Automatic annotation (TrEMBL):
SUPFAM superfamilies: Acyl-CoA N-acyltransferases (Nat). Pfam families: Acetyltransf_1. GO terms for molecular function: acyltransferase activity, transferring groups other than amino-acyl groups. This is Acetyltransferase (GNAT) domain-containing protein. It comes from Micromonospora humi.
């Protein structure tokens, strides 16, 4: 590691951090939003930072928030600089900052090498998601389910009720306050009310929903008694068609590694674009 300069990172380094994230995403796939300023700040400009520079190039970076519970850390190594123990050095530094606190490692560009390092150090994976992309060249044509009508969703109790009914049977579901959940959508500049949809059965009750943020399918849900009727497939297909008509060059979503819905999304034309994960040491 001769010839490297190690120093703290700051706002002026955001362009270099974006370049590092772009290189990692190109090599590994993962969450493309990592290159955006808000997520770069949240992941790589936490209160304690360290970057490795070769000349004017940022080749590795790590960031830690030791005041959270658990403490959190994110690191990146440029693909051209891997295999030189950078990952181990970044993890050593993060563990020093966290001291005896529990430490949660966040990666938006999952790699098998990183997982091997983390598990060898005693971390347990607590979360793994696939990042999926649809190129929108041929949006799927899914027939409308019998007896189901679909309309643009209104931010109100009906939409929240559809969300709660769709997800309440999932292990570990923690129901948020209705105002909080709706407020998060209302306050998000990327919320697409014209593409977010609610599905109703013959009696007018909500049986499913989808919310859209920018060109991302944020959440899709179908209430338990109405599953197996391709309501989810129809809602996603409607969104894909709407995004294509609006001129989007692709559509994205994330789905948990063990969620059977991943198979549905792939059958609708989504392809794997990487993974993201979390690892915890207690």
């Amino acid at each position: 590691m001769d010839g490297l300069t190690w120093r703290e990172l700051g706002e002026a380094d955001l362009p270099a951090l974006a370049g590092l994230a772009e290189a990692a995403l190109a090599a590994d796939g993962g969450l493309p939003l990592l290159t955006t300023t808000p997520l770069l700040r949240a992941r790589l400009l936490q209160p304690r930072t360290l970057g490795a520079w070769r000349g004017g190039d940022l080749v590795a970076a790590v960031s830690v928030d030791a005041d959270r519970t658990p403490a959190t850390a994110t690191g990146l190594v440029h693909p051209a600089w891997r295999g030189r123990e950078f990952g181990a050095r970044l993890l050593d530094w993060a563990e020093e900052q966290a001291a005896d606190a529990d430490l949660l490692l966040t990666t938006e560009t999952w790699t098998a090498g990183a997982e091997a390092l983390f598990t060898a150090r005693g971390y347990s994976r607590t979360f793994l998601e696939w990042v999926l992309r649809h190129d929108l060249h041929a949006p799927p044509d899914v027939p409308a389910p019998d007896g189901v009508t679909v309309r643009p969703a209104t931010l109100g109790p009906e939409l929240f009720g559809a969300y709660r009914a769709s997800f309440a049977d999932r292990p570990g579901f923690a129901e948020p306050a209705v105002d909080e959940w709706l407020g998060d959508l209302r306050d998000d500049d990327d919320f697409r009310p014209e593409l977010s949809l609610i599905a109703r059965g013959p009696d007018g009750d909500a049986v499913g929903f989808v919310t859209v943020l920018g060109d991302w399918i944020d959440q899709v849900g179908v209430v338990p008694d109405w599953r197996g009727r391709r309501i989810g497939a129809y809602l996603v297909a409607r969104v894909l068609g709407g995004l294509a008509e609006a001129g989007a060059d692709g559509a994205w979503l994330c789905v948990n590694d063990d969620n059977p819905a991943a198979g549905l999304y792939r059958r609708l034309g989504f392809h794997d674009a990487g993974r993201r994960a979390r690892y915890l040491r207690r």
